[in-house]
Amino acid sequence: MRADLGAVGADALFLLAGYGVLNAIGFLRTTGADWLAAVGISFLAGVSWVSLVAIALLTVSIPLTLTTFVALSVATAVVGLSIRRGWLSMIRRRPRFGDLRQRLRSLPWYAWVGFVTLAAFGAYAISGGFTARVRPLDDWDAWSIWSRKAEMLVHTGRLPTDVFASSAYAFMHPDYPLLVPVFESIEYRAMGAVDTRAIHVQFWLLLMAFVLAILYLGFRRGTLLEWLPLAVVVGITPSVVSQIFTAYADIPMALLLAVGVLLLGEWLTRGDPRNLAVSVLFLAGAASTKNEGLVAAVIVFVVAAIVTLLGVRRGDSRRLVTAAAAFVVAILPWRIWLSIEGIHGDISPRNGLDPSYLGHRTDRIWPSVESLYGQLAKGGWLYAVPIAAALSIVCLLIRGRRSIAAFYLASGALVFAALVWVYWISPTTPIDAFLASSAYRVVAILAALSFAAILQLPIPTRDG
Amino acid sequence: MLLLGEVAAALVAGVLAAFVWTRKSTPTSVARWIFVLATVFAYLFFWAHVWSITDGFWSDRSTWERLPHGQGAAAGAIAANADLRVGFADWIRRRLKAGDSFYLVPATARADPAVYQWFTYRLIPSVESKRPDGADWLIFYDTSPARSGFSGQLDGAPQQYEPNYSIARLRHAS
Hints:
Chain A is an all-alpha fold. Chain A has helices at residues 2-25, 32-37, 39-59, 66-83, 88-92, 97-105, 109-134, 140-156, 161-164, 179-191, 199-221, 224-234, 238-244, 250-270, 273-287, 291-310, 317-341, 355-359, 365-377, 384-395, 402-425, 431-442, 444-456.
């Protein structure tokens, strides 16, 4: 019981913190419907924000306890909600149900299909939650990497340098970013015990929050009904569902990345700086979840900069530089801590630039390309990558869509190349076994980019 | 080449749909129709699978909820190596104080990723020492103190879980 109630309490605080952050940015509109619809994106924003700050605090030896978490969430909510007080007006305003009835009557038939789908999805989401509640933590990396670090944080409240820097624990990849362990440790503390079964509910919740976040972004963009089937289908996509239940970090990273890239794309097409600000929060979250997330976030920033300089948003490059600086500030504490403690991973980027090192390992390139390519063509990701590629190619021919299509095509190609490069320089052998155990997961980044592209490329916003 | 074929199929489908419905195949209408087809595919996939996946959830739940607490907690180890002595790790957990360090003996146990990683995971917050002489406890996994050459360095008699599975304090341990 405590495990469930405690986790609900922690989730409510993440949500409050998320509302605070989004309100401070001015992202939320001041209507009750808007705030209600923003529950998913606010939860994800809260998880991202609180975890990023908690990681920064941990690196300067400030312990992560339940008190720290509560103080951080409440402070974020209070400050964020006081910066802009427009939301107070929606409390005073009475909801107009007369209008609502009128609007329901005038809805097109496909809106009703959408509502029925949403209702079925609600039942599905609840069933998934009940199943997640009892699932044992039996996938290797889930206990050996992610939950291990979370449990260390629960027991010590600090980053145990002796463990992270010890060669006896090199297998747990001490250099991996810490967002998932921090998130899990907060939930464990709130549960009052390390409940490795109940933790799956939290991963499930991240996925459900993502679906709601996409629906919200569609709602504020005026494309809710168009986005609805694509949003809900993510929640039942075979590769997503099977992987979210493993409690690995790949899918949480991909979810944050998808929202971040979508908002960055929205900024590129519409120029609203609030989209850019929220995008930074999500991209920093993705970069703090997995190293692949960091690579992808850097790539999309670089491509966005090129598109900004060459395309229609030329005057906005200063904003993008500020955003990139905020991103660097968000991810830097963990990188500085790793450097000070002399902790590094098994993949050395320096080797990746050494021609003689690369030259001796060229036999790893083709199997990597083949394996990653094969994963993208399989049906597990519901053909998101080929559909996105087709859309990008067509949109290159449309005036006004060219920049955004180039953004997605270039980002996707560079992310694919970066993944091949990582396999090329990785010391792990044999390559076939390495690919078999990881390629199916790391392509989640490309699926995330593709998903954002499919949503954004073909239909402009209602307001243009 | 499969992926390129899928990209081409999506393009052809978009061109055909745009032509059939609007009698023109401009890039804008093709993009719109690829999107429409993607949403139709999403709806079809959703309705074709939502109930079977939901049903699968409930059947998984009924299997998992029958798992006893201990077995559920050790599921990771069992999945990694069915022969792993998970009971031994839990037995040690009750004997080590938080923060005690340990060293797994013999080298073959440390070289077995499933054994090594499971014991270092299950014994958190106790930490594996890099060297045996830096540890508070020695853990004998599928060996005995005598066979592993540590019998002369122990502080008292080893505590035995079962034959060849025991723990002992080192004489000079803090």
